[in-house]
Amino acid sequence: MIFNTHSHINDKMSQIDEIYQDCLNNGVSDIGVCGYDLDSSKRAIKLAHINKMFHAMCGLQPQEIAKYNGDFSDFEELFQDDKCIAIGEIGLDYYYGKDDKEKQLDVFEKQVQIATKYKKTIVIHCRDAYEDTFNILNKYHQQLDGIVLHCYSGSVEMMQRFLNIGCYISLSGVVTFKNAKVAKEVAIACPINKLLVETDDPFLTPVPFRGQENKPSYVRYVIAEIASLKNMSNDEIANITYNNAKRVFHL
């Protein structure tokens, strides 16, 4: 069994039957369907109610905070749904915009606070903002029920700081890229009991399909690369990361 912890199939509602069958054919048993705004979060919940393979994650991603009106009540209804396994993806993204840095920090921290209220794991989007992300998580980590760093792209040294406050590290197709030296170092250094795998489809397509649209079933190439780097079998990585996902999401 394989648990792909981060996918955006909620943007492909008309193709769900095909996606489901492709995942079954390739050993993918569970998919974290991640929202990034209110509408995509609602679609994630809908999918989770339709099929037990899909697990909803709901939240407002930093690139979407222009849609935030100061009220999270609509999101809070979703967070209380029993099919919502996490609040995410939430976080900070200074790559695409530093002009709204203060608003990003405010929206991120508010969602972290809500996660402590509902006892939900959080799924973090972080790009070029690891220090600020760490500072907020360090402030709340003892009150949180789980932290996942989605598509982790930081250094091994930064990873260790996150591990010290209980975070899980999720790796995507980037680890398969030939020039992804840091991602490969992270895969080798990350304790196996804190490692997760994902696709972040339709983005970050792994080798050998780089340049094409990503699919949830391609998570098997992420597993194969990590297995090679850690001198383990594909089945070992699949099974361990599956159990890690079940643990961090309380499934």
Please outline the major beta sheet: 8 strands, parallel
Task: Give, in spatial order, the strands making up the sheet with the most strands.
Answer: 1-2-3-4-5-6-7-8
Runs in which pLDDT lies below 50 for 5 or more consecutive residues are: none
Number of strands: 8
CATH superfamily: Metal-dependent hydrolases
CATH architectural grouping: Alpha-Beta Barrel
The N- and C-terminal alpha carbons lie at a distance of: 14 Å
Beta strand %: 15-25%
Order of helices and strands: EHEHEHEHEHEHEHEHH
Structural class, judged by helices and strands? alpha/beta
Secondary structure: helix percent: 40-55%
Q: Give me the CATH fold name.
A: TIM Barrel
Regarding CATH, which class?
Alpha Beta
Which word captures the global form? globular
* Cα-atom radius of gyration: 17 Å
What is the typical, i.e. mean, pLDDT?
97
Number of domains: 1
How many H/I helical runs?
9
Summary, kept brief:
The protein has helices at residues 16-25, 38-50, 73-79, 101-118, 130-140, 156-164, 181-189, 219-230, 234-248; strands at residues 2-7, 28-34, 54-58, 84-93, 121-127, 147-149, 168-171, 195-197. The chain has 251 residues and is of the alpha/beta class. The chain has an eight-stranded parallel sheet with strand order 1-2-3-4-5-6-7-8.
Question: What does the model show?
Answer:
There is one protein chain. With 251 residues, this protein is of the alpha/beta class. The chain has a single domain (2-248), classed as Metal-dependent hydrolases (TIM Barrel, Alpha-Beta Barrel). The chain has 9 helices and 8 strands. It has helices at 16-25, 38-50, 73-79, 101-118, 130-140, 156-164, 181-189, 219-230, 234-248, and strands spanning 2-7, 28-34, 54-58, 84-93, 121-127, 147-149, 168-171, 195-197. It has an 8-stranded parallel beta sheet with strand order 1-2-3-4-5-6-7-8. Strand 6 (147-149), helix 6 (156-164) and strand 7 (168-171) form a beta-alpha-beta unit. The model has no long low-confidence stretch (mean pLDDT 97).
